[in-house]
Amino acid sequence: MICRHCAAPLDFVLIDLGSQPASNAYLTEAQLEQSEVHAPLKVFVCTCCWLVQLPEHHSSDELFTPDYAYFSSVSKSWVAHAKLYATAMIERFALSASDWVVEVASNDGYLLQFFSDAGIACTGIEPTASTASVARARGIESLERFFSGDLADELVAQRGHPRLIAANNVLAHVPDINDFVTGFARLLAPEGVATFEFPELRNLIAKCQFDTIYHEHYSYLSLIAVKRILASVGLRVFDVEHLATHGGSLRVFACHDAANHATTDAVAQAIEREIAEGLADERGYRALAAQAFAIKLDLIEFLVKQKRAGARVAAYGAAAKGNTLLNYAGVHTDLIDFVCDAAPSKQGRYMPGSHIPILPPAALSEHRPDFVLILPWNLKDEIVPDYDYIREWGGRFVICVPTLEVF
After folding, report:
1. What is the pLDDT of residue 61?
2. Where does 72-285 sit in CATH, by number?
3. Cα–Cα distance between 170 and 197 in angstroms, integer?
4. Beta bridge partners of 358
């Protein structure tokens, strides 16, 4: 195997989470009787360019299917984050009705709705029909395509160049990362800005967020690697912001090399911090596997203890990260009765691998579990206030990443 960016051989393993099904491949009842496709979740580190990556076991169209079940607008905090982003970009870069904004991986229009409300023309590029149709119902132009260099050329020929291109939580999701960023370089206006948001690799390692590893995430990104990848197509990182989203993310601002955007000190400071934490040499990557294994053992021990005591355990949030955790730990319906999720697209289906049924949130009141394991731990502060009523019957919440906590 070779690095998807620099083509160097890959032989340094970050972590091996075993063979698992695709984390967003939620099952119907009929599919429970069929065989599931499993593929290795074995992550490598390129010691030449420091891109952390999962080999391409699934093509993009196998993972991002027309009935894709993840809808961004389900999370209130994520929509609020998107609104703040739109307001900030309009102000910082003086965007007006004469400009054009493009979002790559625009999902259900959760972000572009705020540019549209401000009277700014916008286009979403979203390959999944299920989410793109919701965006169009909001009045957002949505192209059901995967973004690429060729698509960028088509858009330039038809529409010209946008002043702003947004790419939230998609850079990690593309197998051909070189062609993907080439598309940004071709599409972006000469003085335009492209922003990329992605979970920060240093947090994945420092906080043992191993459950963010799944087949849709082909790459796990540091600024060291992203800066190099963008530079290879003539894009310059001129600013970076640290965000609280997804357990700690980066927002990277990029422009053409010759553009008049001054490079801030934040870029060098972020690079220096990554180097200090060992992300430019092998020592920074060696502890993750053992820490993840300890979390796995703690979760199994907790669940077995509660089962022996006759307690009922449910989970909340049929998130991809939850599927990685449950399948790595080998947890099924023998230890967790059901998972609740607010997304209608997931309700009535079953978690891949574990086959735990996904029910509406009302099931918590109906079944009154003793413990509710929050699988999307990054949304804990949003979830707990909404379902705090479980304490009325003595119920308690649980998270297990980065450490097991019952509260």
Report:
1. 65
2. 3.40.50.150
3. 8
4. 339
Q: Which pLDDT score is estimated for 247?
A: 86
Q: Contact, 362 vs 336, CB < 8 A?
A: no
Residues 6+ apart with CB under 8 A from 103: 111, 112, 122, 123, 124, 125, 165, 166, 167, 168
Give residues with Cβ within 8 angstroms of 117, minimum separation 6.
none
Phi-psi group of 20: left, alpha or beta (phi > 0 → left; psi -120 to 50 → alpha; rest → beta) = beta
326: enclosing H helix or E strand: helix 320-329
Q: Residue 282's pLDDT is what?
A: 95
- C-alpha 375/C-alpha 101 separation (Å) is 34
Q: Which residue has the tokens 């019952």?
A: 406
Cβ atoms of residues 390 and 398 within 8 Å: no
What local confidence, expressed as pLDDT, does residue 305 receive? Answer: 98
Report the pLDDT averaged over residues 86-101.
98
For residue 136, what are its two tokens? Answer: 């169009």
Q: Nearest to residue 327, comparing CAs of 365, 369, 292?
A: 292
Give DSSP secondary structure letters for 82-123: HHHHHHHHHHHTT--TT-EEEEES-TTSTTHHHHHHTT-EEE
- As a whole number, mean pLDDT of residues 72-90 equals 95
Q: How many residues does this entry show for the chain?
A: 407
Report the predicted TM-score, pTM, of the whole model to 2 decimal places. 0.91
Domain with CATH 3.40.50.720 in the chain: 288-406
User: How many helices (H) does the chain have, and how many strands (E)?
Assistant: 13, 17
Quote the CA–CA distance of 196 and 167 in Å, as a whole number.
5
Rounded CA-CA distance 251/385 in Å is 28
E strands, 244-337, in order: 249-256, 313-316
Query: What's the angle, vertex CA 385, arms to CA 379 and CA 389, rounded to 5?
Result: 125
The rounded distance, in Å, linking the Cα atoms of 381 and 339 is 18
pLDDT at 68: 73
Residues contacting 148, CB < 8 A, separation 6+: 176, 179, 180, 183
Contact between 247 and 209 (Cβ < 8 Å): yes
Task: Return the residue matching tokens 């071709």.
Answer: 186
Rounded to an integer, what distance in angstroms lies between the CA atom of residue 22 and that of residue 323? 9
Residue ranges, comma separated, of all CATH 3.40.50.150 domains in the chain are 72-285
CATH class of 288-406: alpha beta
The residue whose two tokens read 């961004």 is 72
The long-range contacts involving 151-159, CB below 8 angstroms and separated by at least 24 positions, are 151/125, 151/183, 152/182, 152/183, 152/184, 152/186, 152/187, 153/186, 155/102, 155/123, 155/187, 156/186, 156/187, 159/100, 159/123
CA distance 64 to 68: 6
